[in-house]
Amino acid sequence: MADFDLCVNTFDVHICEDGSASPESLRYGSVMTEQLLDAAANAGITVMDRDRTEGLDRIGLALADPIRRSVLVRLLDGSQYPSDLADAIGTSRSNLSNHLACLRGCGLVSVKRIGRRFNYTLVSAELTDALRSLLAVADTLSPCDDHMSPPNERDDS
Fold it and tell me: Which of 71, 81, 92, 152 is buried most deeply by CB count within 10 Å?
């Protein structure tokens, strides 16, 4: 059996020779991911263990956006208020609020009310350590190939 690709709705899944599959489009959200995984299972395809990868799905969703990545990196230094995060990142408070809601929904940040303000922090030392490790790995990577840049910024000559 050779490798092939399966398209289920808007999801692409790469099927390996051993019949296993790995969803490559988890950024679409957990409900659609569940639909993809169900469709793959119905097609007799072994997909990554849902229980073990669900947390990775949430982390991937959080890391997929530059503002959320910036928030997570800034929270490595300790808890912060949304207004300070918005100013440091260079985004509006309402935009940041949406991203903080996503990070809360993913279970990566917690919020504590202090008087009339809210203070955000990473949920665990393990997450903090993992993010620090990812940053250390990222610092060792060479720049991306041109195929990773948006089409209007590519030098296709």
Answer: 71
3-state secondary structure of 148: helix
Q: Report the 10 Å Cβ neighbour count for 109.
A: 23
Helix (H, G, I), strand (E, B) or coil at 15: strand
Q: State the residue for tokens 């990222």.
A: 138
Cβ atoms 123, 110 nearer than 8 A: yes
Please provide the average confidence, as pLDDT, over all residues in the chain. 78
CA torsion sign for 72, 119, 99, 22 is positive
Q: Give the count of alpha carbons within 13 A of 156, CB side only.
A: 8
- In 3-state terms the chain splits into helix, strand, coil percentages (rounded to 5) of 55, 20, 30
DSSP secondary structure code for residue 25 in this structure: -
Of 63 and 39, more confident: 63
**Are 85 and 73 contacting, i.e. CB atoms less than 8 angstroms apart?**
no
Helix (H) or strand (E) holding 26: none
Mean of the pLDDT values across residues 19-44?
57
Q: Which two tokens stand for residue 19?
A: 């019949």
pTM of the model: 0.63
The two most distant CA atoms of the chain are separated, in Å, by 62
